[in-house]
Amino acid sequence: MSEHKHPFVPLEFEKSEISDVSQRAKEIYEELDSRRTVREFSSEPVPRSVIEDLILAASTAPSGAHKQPWTFCAVTDPEIKSRIRKAAEKEEYENYHGRMSDEWLNDLEPLQTDWNKAFLEIAPWLVIIFRKSYDLDDGEKKKNYYVQESVGIASGMFLSAAHRAGLVALTHTPSPMNFLCEILGRPKNEKPFLLIPVGFPADDVKVPDLKRKGLDDVAEFYE
Question: What is the dihedral of CA 56, 47, 173, 57, to 10 degrees?
């Protein structure tokens, strides 16, 4: 048998009874089904250690050639959050007053969103996920693979981890988002992918009365 150039280690995996697997799958679904996007946050602080663990959890995501082509920028500084809000609202105002199509605006109407993004200053943390199309190693470009897919998976895992930790979050995409590179001083190989306010919900917060698609609408089984 040929030896691997890079070392392999045994998989740490303990097989469970199928009844336990089924029970856990149902519990995970029920827990994640209670996750809701929130736009009204409490200013109550969240320890940095919590955000660190959420980022580490997200960074366990699979990625093309294990390149892990992401950077999580966690912002709690009030001045930086204020700058981000002003820049985001500038772009969002343009979106809601001409850039977005009528169809898009109609689809957003049930969510009652607008260009005002006060949550960007109220939420205790803003976590901005940047995608790296390539790495820089002593100034030399090193290609990354399946960057969009990899960063998308990591983003989803961050949202799931935040929910399971007892926090709420919002996926915010004030397009275009290049102002985040300037405000945060990010290198040229990084582009903003998602801006996620994270924290506790405001008191008596309400969310749209929405229903998720059922299994028959999102899956096809071939047996």
Answer: 20
Q: Which pTM value belongs to this model?
A: 0.93
Q: What is the torsional sign of CA 37, 128, 32, 42? A: negative
- Is residue 2 in a domain? no
194 backbone dihedrals φ, ψ, rounded to 5°:
-160, 140
In a domain, 119, yes or no: yes
Confidence band for 138, pLDDT divided at 50, 70 and 90: confident
Q: Which residues contact 185 (CB under 8 A, 6 or more apart)?
A: none
Of 148, 130, 147, 146, which Cα lies nearest the Cα of 188?
Answer: 130
Instruction: Answer yes or no: is 223 within a domain.
Output: no
Domain that holds residue 165: 41-200
Is residue 176 in a domain? yes
